[in-house]
Amino acid sequence: MYLETIYILSKKQENVRSIDIARKMNFSKPSVSRAVKNLQSENYIDIDSNGFITLASNGLAIAKKIYERHEVFTQILVSLGVDPEIAEEDACRIEHVVSDETFRVIKKHLKEKGS
Question: How many helices (H) and strands (E) does the chain have?
Answer without folding.
Answer: 6, 2
